[in-house]
């Protein structure tokens, strides 16, 4: 340590006092390193205090082990009550439109499938395992297939089929290989999985294909439904277990109905349904003109159930094409 002398506070006194000169820089660094670091207050203790300040109050002694009450699910909107329709329309969360434009991919016992090129040029591609059979519409459904697939046709005469105007023949494709199917009209394809506990009604031209355990039969409708629903006197009755593929003219819209919920579909737009419906007149006009043209008669469904409908009416489209076709001079 260096000592230096400097004059006292009064320069005339002549006395000197000893002062301590600052150490050199290297010695300052050594002293700073030797000094013990100050202990900071523990952070954990501060966090515990802050958590204690914002933590919820504890349960009483008798309710410490009681669980929190479960949240109640939101109540389902009753769309049949006009008071629940804000602005005259259902809430946006309830709306389900034609959103099935992405590929539908799935599997079944003995193969897999993909629905692609939606929703007006849709094709169904099926990969079949060895010995797995597949039933399909006999006329106009097959687009292409692997040479390893075996095609077998059966012809069965039935009075019911003749009266219903159904196909007397059926086509069965057996794997292994790839099978591509498509409807005759410009439209979409959707799959319906059957569990053996439900029964579906399918329009006369909507059936495309099904797996082996699906049972296809005919179901007779009433005379009024046969004339004005656009589906004819007989429709397909589908039951069993497996996968069913149906096609449409235009896009397909799926509508799920709650218990007691009602929904109206115009005639000529039905594809498949598993709930009952009645014909109802919704438009005013003369009785004779309405019955002759079918105008004002619609299909009114009541839930619970599901309805698949198509966005185009084949008969109306045929009328449209006939109106714009050039007439012979």
From TrEMBL:
Residues 1-95 are annotated as: Disordered. It comes from the Eukaryota. Residues 27-54 have a biased composition (Low complexity). It is found in: Mitochondrion. Keywords: Mitochondrion. GO terms for cellular component: mitochondrion. Pfam families: AIM24 (PF01987). NCBIfam families: TIGR00266 family protein. Belongs to the AIM24 family. This is Altered inheritance of mitochondria protein 24, mitochondrial. It comes from Trichoderma longibrachiatum ATCC 18648.
């Amino acid at each position: 340590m260096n000592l230096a002398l400097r004059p006292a506070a009064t320069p005339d006194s002549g006395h000197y006092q000893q002062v301590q000169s600052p150490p050199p820089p290297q010695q300052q660094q050594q002293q700073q390193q030797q000094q013990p670091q100050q202990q900071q207050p523990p952070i954990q203790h501060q966090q515990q205090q802050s958590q204690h300040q914002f933590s919820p109050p504890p349960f009483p002694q008798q309710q410490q082990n009681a669980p929190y009450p479960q949240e109640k699910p939101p109540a389902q909107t009753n769309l049949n009550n006009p008071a629940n329709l804000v602005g005259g329309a259902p809430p946006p969360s309830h709306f389900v439109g034609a959103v099935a434009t992405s590929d539908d991919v799935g599997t079944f016992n003995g193969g897999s499938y993909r629905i692609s090129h939606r929703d007006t040029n849709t094709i169904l591609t099926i990969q079949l395992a060895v010995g797995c059979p597949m039933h399909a519409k006999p006329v106009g459904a097959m687009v292409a297939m692997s040479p390893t697939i075996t095609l077998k046709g059966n012809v069965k005469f039935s009075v019911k089929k003749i009266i219903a105007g159904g196909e007397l023949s059926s086509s069965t494709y057996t794997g292994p290989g790839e099978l591509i199917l498509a409807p005759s009209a410009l439209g979409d394809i959707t799959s319906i999985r059957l569990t053996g506990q439900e029964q579906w009604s399918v329009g006369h031209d909507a059936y495309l294909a099904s797996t082996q355990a699906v049972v296809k039969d005919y179901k007779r409708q009433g005379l009024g439904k046969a004339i004005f629903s656009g589906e004819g006197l007989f429709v397909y009755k589908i039951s069993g277990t497996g996968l069913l593929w149906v096609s449409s003219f235009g896009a397909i819209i799926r509508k799920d109905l709650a218990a007691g919920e009602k929904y109206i579909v115009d005639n000529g737009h039905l594809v498949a349904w598993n709930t009952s419906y009645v014909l109802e007149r919704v438009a005013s006009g003369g009785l004779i003109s309405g019955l002759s043209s079918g105008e004002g008669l619609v299909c009114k469904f009541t839930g619970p159930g599901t309805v698949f409908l198509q966005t185009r009416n084949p008969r109306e489209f045929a009328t449209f094409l006939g109106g714009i076709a050039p007439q012979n001079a």
